[in-house]
């Protein structure tokens, strides 16, 4: 059986260091925030090319608090995409602002910069581009339109640890960057975690207060805050794992290269990456016109796959009140209907990849009457 991800293989490869880091927290009893979290904040901010990092309990909280720090609230509008994990939109909703959606570019699955201007109104406060699957959104034109209209830009970098755009890291490409350390992410905690990165001391100060009950110092609550602190144990584990992130990312990129050579031989289009980005392949996405059947048949052949994501946010019942309908974002809807995620993790072997593609080579043609070249992938 080839799993979709294998978190245990990775733990076993660093077990001694992780176990010692956990034992250290038990001994020091710095269970929430504390010196390991502070050190991790510095190290991860530096890794991401940003001056400051503020650790929080989830990626969702990172987005929520970054939006609040940007001054987003009721009556405001924030522009993002419907083809993302639901949290990108939920975080906007939490602030009381209205999520305004624009479609994606079908090649990179990220925000179409050309669609932004038409979505801007006098109430627009911020833009949240999502670096989906580990491919950075096209930040240069996004920043240009944002600066023209005085909008704050917050990167949803929850899938893009170490990704680069024009040689600069995700998390340093806009006003704030938001990361998730959910276990399955490229840098994953053994529990939950998140971080806001920024070069702006005021944004950092506000997020720092908001994550810990809005307190400037103990029991002096300046803002109406939250309990969204990063746990000491997660900070200690993430510090250990950060040292290996570049090696793991290079393994992912090598695996993507290998798929990229094997898939076309089987008549299947490989995902594209723009020339000016370092794609970190959180997800390795192919497209198929007959996904349900293909996924079931692959499973029967011992290949586990995923779908990211089967519904665009504007067609989810929870967000029906945004007032969008089928047909509003055609590229997002088509991607949601066709995307299939192949096994992708740093420990994935070349043999396993060959097995995946051999299974696909047998199954894909019979289930895809549309030629691969007809699908919008390249
Ligand atoms: C994982 C993820 C989030 C939310 O992160 P959590 O840590 O699970 O709260 C937000 N946006 C995107 C694109 C994600 O993949």
Put the structure in a nutshell.
With 378 residues, the chain is an alpha/beta fold. The chain has helices at 7-13, 15-28, 35-47, 59-69, 87-94, 139-149, 201-211, 232-242, 245-265, 291-300, 330-338, 350-367, and strands at residues 52-56, 77-80, 98-101, 124-127, 152-156, 164-165, 168-169, 176-180, 194-198, 215-217, 220-221, 277-278, 284-287, 339-342.
List the helices and strands and how they pair.
Layout: H1 7-13, H2 15-28, H3 35-47, E1 52-56, H4 59-69, E2 77-80, H5 87-94, E3 98-101, E4 124-127, H6 139-149, E5 152-156, E6 164-165, E7 168-169, E8 176-180, E9 194-198, H7 201-211, E10 215-217, E11 220-221, H8 232-242, H9 245-265, E12 277-278, E13 284-287, H10 291-300, H11 330-338, E14 339-342, H12 350-367
Parallel strand pairs: 2-3, 2-4, 4-5, 5-8
Antiparallel strand pairs: 1-9, 6-7, 6-12, 8-9, 10-11, 13-14
Helix pairs in contact: 2-8, 3-8, 4-5, 4-7, 9-12, 10-12
